[in-house]
Design brief:
Helix content is 25%, strand content 16%. The protein has helices spanning 40-51, 74-85, 104-109, 149-158, and strands at residues 8-9, 15-16, 25-31, 56-62, 128-131, 137-140. The radius of gyration is 14 Å and the shape is globular. The protein is built from 4 helices and 6 strands. It has 161 residues and is α+β, with helices and mostly antiparallel strands.
Length: 161
């Protein structure tokens, strides 16, 4: 099964998949509301605003596996993201990104190595995977801020228009 075919659900529980973003560059980010890196939502939303019209979308994937930092319900997560950070990008349902119950999306994404050649488990909240329109995946670790030049350059290079 390709990345685009993996069944996903939106934060509201509606079925979706990455096929809905066919032809776009997508940045998949496991997110959390109560993390020291949570302010990255500001930069992610800025990327969404800057590049959406050029065929780009951030997709947030809440996860509660790191220090219990995403304990809320879908409604609480949506309210927090909207009210606190003005998030407009799509959010998926809360999933596990590591371990025996790892979501199939993360089975595929964690096989991708980062710039230092390391694949495997997600390290922490806000790990990022840039999926280019051709399906190429580039991995950025949690401490890579949305404003980081390497990430910005990779996003700009992946934009379809």
């Amino acid at each position: 099964m390709s990345l685009k075919e993996i069944p996903l659900n939106t934060l509201k529980g509606e079925p979706t998949s990455l096929a809905d973003y066919d032809g776009k560059a997508v940045l998949v980010v496991n997110v959390a509301s109560k993390c020291g890196l949570t302010p990255q939502y500001t930069g992610l939303e800025a990327m969404q605003a800057k590049y959406a019209q050029r065929g780009f979308s951030v997709i947030g994937v809440p996860c509660n596996q790191f220090g219990g930092q995403e304990p809320g319900s879908a409604e609480e997560i949506e309210e927090f993201c909207s009210a606190t950070y003005g998030v407009t990008f799509p959010m998926l349902e809360k999933v596990e990104v590591n371990g025996d119950n790892r979501h199939p999306l993360y089975d595929e994404l964690t096989a991708v190595a980062d710039s230092e050649g390391n694949a495997g488990d997600i390290q922490w909240n806000f790990e990022k995977f840039l999926i280019a329109p051709d399906g190429t995946v580039t991995r950025f670790r949690p401490m890579t801020a949305p404003e980081d030049e390497a990430l910005v350059s990779a996003v700009e290079a992946a934009l379809p228009n």
